[in-house]
């Protein structure tokens, strides 16, 4: 009888431990998957700046949509090929940081307006407006306008 109780106790402990591990694993997966779209879009901006700073062309190609359209500081219309050139090394945002940022989500589209603080001498601020869209591959930057703050 004692051995049956021991076996039942052992089985119960194993079942409880297995259920607990499965619950924790599920909760961790849910936290990442359920983060707010606003947070995901702000992370996309940080990922974009980091990829540009490192010259990470693979990440830039993933972040920027193929049908991207943008406006440069002088008003020139830009495509993805214009902002993801075939180059290596750090881009123009090396050392830049994100300042105040505001995101509005409209279904699968979001608008981010914020400030980028450059690392140049003297440091400058750039107003950024990004339009991003959730696609099957994740959030992509589909439009951008950058304006230097005098």
Describe, in plain words, how this protein is organized in 3D.
The chain has 150 residues and is of the alpha+beta class. It has 2 domains: 1-34; 35-148, Roll (Nuclear Transport Factor 2, Chain: A), CATH 3.10.450. Helices cover 41% and strands 35% of the residues. The chain contains 4 helices and 6 strands. The chain has helices spanning 2-33, 37-54, 57-63, 80-83; strands at 64-71, 77-79, 97-106, 109-117, 125-135, 138-148. A 6-stranded mixed sheet has the order 2-1-6-5-4-3. Helix 2 runs antiparallel to helix 3. The termini are far apart. The model is unreliable at 3-32 (pLDDT under 50).
Q: How would a textbook summarize the main sheet?
A: 6 strands, mixed
So what's the overall shape?
globular
How many individual helices? 4
- Strand numbers in spatial order across the main sheet: 2-1-6-5-4-3
Provide the residue-averaged pLDDT: 80
SSE inventory with pairings:
Layout: H1 2-33, H2 37-54, H3 57-63, E1 64-71, E2 77-79, H4 80-83, E3 97-106, E4 109-117, E5 125-135, E6 138-148
Parallel strand pairs: 1-6
Antiparallel strand pairs: 1-2, 3-4, 4-5, 5-6
What distinguishing features does this structure have?
six-stranded mixed sheet; Nuclear Transport Factor 2, Chain: A; globular; 150 residues
Short description, anyone?
The chain is of the alpha+beta class. The chain has helices at residues 2-33, 37-54, 57-63, 80-83, and strands at residues 64-71, 77-79, 97-106, 109-117, 125-135, 138-148.
């Amino acid at each position: 009888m004692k051995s049956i109780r021991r076996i039942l106790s052992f089985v119960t402990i194993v079942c409880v431990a297995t259920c607990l591990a499965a619950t924790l694993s599920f909760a961790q997966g849910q936290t990442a998957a359920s983060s707010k779209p606003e947070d995901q879009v702000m992370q996309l901006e940080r990922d974009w700046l980091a990829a540009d700073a490192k010259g990470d062309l693979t990440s830039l190609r993933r972040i920027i949509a193929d049908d991207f359209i943008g406006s440069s500081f002088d008003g020139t219309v830009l495509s993805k090929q214009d902002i993801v050139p075939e180059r290596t090394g750090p881009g123009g945002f090396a050392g830049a940081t994100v300042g105040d940022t505001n995101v509005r989500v409209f279904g699968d589209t979001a608008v981010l307006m914020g400030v980028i603080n450059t690392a140049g001498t003297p440091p400058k601020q750039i107003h950024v407006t990004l339009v991003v869209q959730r696609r099957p591959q994740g959030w992509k930057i589909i439009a951008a306008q950058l304006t230097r703050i005098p």
